[in-house]
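Here is an idea for our session: we take a single protein and study its fold together. Which protein we use is up to you, so please pick one and set it down. Once you have written the record down, we can walk along the chain together:
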Amino acid sequence: MSNENSVRLDAIGVATSDLPAALAFYRRLGLTFPEGAERLPHVEAELPGGIRLMFDPVESAKDLGRGRVGLAFLCTGGAAGVDAKYAELTGAGHHGETEPWDADWGQRYAVVHDPDGNQVDLFAWL
């Protein structure tokens, strides 16, 4: 695989039915969250190696599709890297949930499903 079309796991998203309880639990495991995070609509902690563990209330995590866990892969090569990886995965027969698009939050974004139906986000910063 060339560097222009490589990916790395960047984030794991978890939908939770009780955000304060989830954050308290993971704080006991050593994760650090900002003060007042329990009242935020989206919370992240950076793990060793730079991977982000993200928490969203179930009500606002509808973007996780059918599951409660989603993986996000950072694509090198910018927008073209997202487009190429999406085309590669859907060309290999994997379900494409959302074709690549330029999201309002400043990323080129696409969504595919793994063979078990788990959501896998592909993104690059614009």
Summary: The longest helix spans residues 78-91.
